[in-house]
Each structure stands twice: as C-alpha cells, then as structure tokens.
Amino acid sequence: MRTASVSLDLDNLWAYLKTHGDPEWESRPSFLATAVPRLLDVFGEHRLTTTVFVVGADAERDDGAQAVADVVAAGHEVANHSWGHEPWLHRYSPAELEAEIVRAENAIVAAGAPRPRGFRGPGYSVTPELLKVLAARGYRYDASTLPTWIGPLARAYHNRTTRHRAAGQDDLFGGFGKVMSPNTPYRWRDTGLVELPVTTMPLLRVPIHGAYLLQLHQISPRLARGYFRAALRLCLLTGTSPSLLLHPTDVLSGAEAPGMEFFPGMAVPGAEKAALLGWVLSALRRHFEVVGTGEHADRLAGLLRERRVELCG
After folding, report:
1. Residue 141, helix vs strand vs coil
2. How far apart are CA 35 and CA 12, in angstroms?
3. In which band, very low, low, confident or very high, does the pLDDT at 307 lie, cut at 50, 70 and 90?
4. What is the rounded CA–CA span in Å between residue 183 and residue 176?
5. pTM above 0.85, yes or no
6. Cα dist from 288 to 2, 48, 104, 208, 240, whole Å
C-alpha cells in the first residue's frame, strides 16, 4: 500500500490574531487546552501516528508544554514550527533565522520532546537561507511548500478581513508562481534536505486541507466530501503520495476560538468538525498507509534523486 502522511500545525489562538493584525494577540490567548485533547482523541480513534509542528513560544508556556508532553506520550513526532510564528521568515536575516530555529528547538526539548528534525515555516515561508540553517543543524526534512496558485487570492481575503495591517502582509502566502512548485516530494540539491510539500489537488493545484474543506462543508457537507474524494482519486491516478495538513481550528467552533470569526469554517460546530476530520482520515486510510511526516520523509529519502528546484514567491 502506498504511503501518505498527516501533520498538525499547532498554531495557537494568539498566532492567528497576530497574523491578522489584532492587538489582542499580545495577551497570548490560547485554545490549546481544548484543541489538543480533542485532536489526540481523533488520532487515537483512527490509530494514527502523526507529526505535530510546535511553535516554540507555546512550548515555553504551561499549557503548551503540557501539549508537547501529551503529544509525545501518545507516540507522535514533534517538529519545529518556528519560535514566534511569523509568516514572513523570508524577510529574516540568516542570523535571525538561526536564532529563531534554535530558540524553538530549545523550547521543544525543554518541554520533553526529542530535538526536532523536521521543520515547517509558518505561512509556508521558506528561503534558501532557511534551508541552509536547517541543514547545518541536522534537520532531515522541510515541509514548508504549498504548491498552489491561490496565494494572492488568500492574501486578498486575509487583508480584506484584517482590522490592523501587520508587517509582512504585503507578500503573505506567496504569488501565483507557487503553482510551478512540485506537488510530490523531492530533495533540495544545495542542502540535501527532503522537501515534503503540503499536497494540493493534483492537476488543479487547489488546497485540500482543513480550512478549505470546512468552507465547502458550510455550503454543503456532500460537496466537501465529494471534493476530498476527487482529490484522493487524482492522487491515486497520478501516483501522488499525499501529505495532509491539519490545524486546531479543524476541531474548534467559533465560540472556542474568540476573535477568529474571520477564519474560514468557524461557523461549523466543533463536534461536526471533528466528525468531518474523522471521515477524512478514514477515507485517506482506505487507500494509503498513513504515517507522520518524519517517517514519510525517511521512507522517501533513499528513493529521491537530487534535482534543482527554484523557490517560488
């Protein structure tokens, strides 16, 4: 059976508000205590081992450290999602990038997880300088690319719903050129790192992860399920080994994430979201052996031939 992977970006409430330009983020509101047990219950029900990309600033706080401990105890990999969750790492200097990575590593290890060997940039932000820092620190893989053409549309929606403009929003989510990025895993020539893209629908290159499914689910649950079935069929037809991305908002209602009314799918009740996630995972498991991104990258590492890939956006 072919391999697929599932990962969770453990973005917290404050991180969404920060990117949205809401000054309330500075009080560091959190929904981890609600989201993490619910997500781990869903993973356990489906007997899945996943990868959780943790934000270092959260790992330094009590509820974040508890989340890391619970994730490790459940057998999931913990990976690095930066320290401050700023989706404009492409604006950082090499020294700032290294400091960001190291501080997150230290926080994750202090919370009880092994030193991470995988990374995903917030907002799919990745640069050659970032890849060099990761390689120098012994990382095995990166999972920061989203090969789609909708970046400028997502940015327009984001900016239209933002109350206060934040630094870096002008190039948030990249440009249309990201559609040219590979939708299958590859190895970066200059660093040797395996790149595991967040899979988009083959051929159409539209996202298939939680927020997009939930937006369709608000219109019609049948439409959302049909959309995901079509994505899986195209993955099978094209030989694409999917890597599915999840977020805490995939199981939280709007009432459980105050201030996030702007985010797609927040009108759907939390229990209904969890049921949809369970269905998605079951559908994925019918066709693929599902693992975390670290194991997925390890399985692919020996099969990938190095090739030059130009960064887009």
Report:
1. strand
2. 9
3. very low
4. 15
5. yes
6. 5, 12, 32, 16, 11
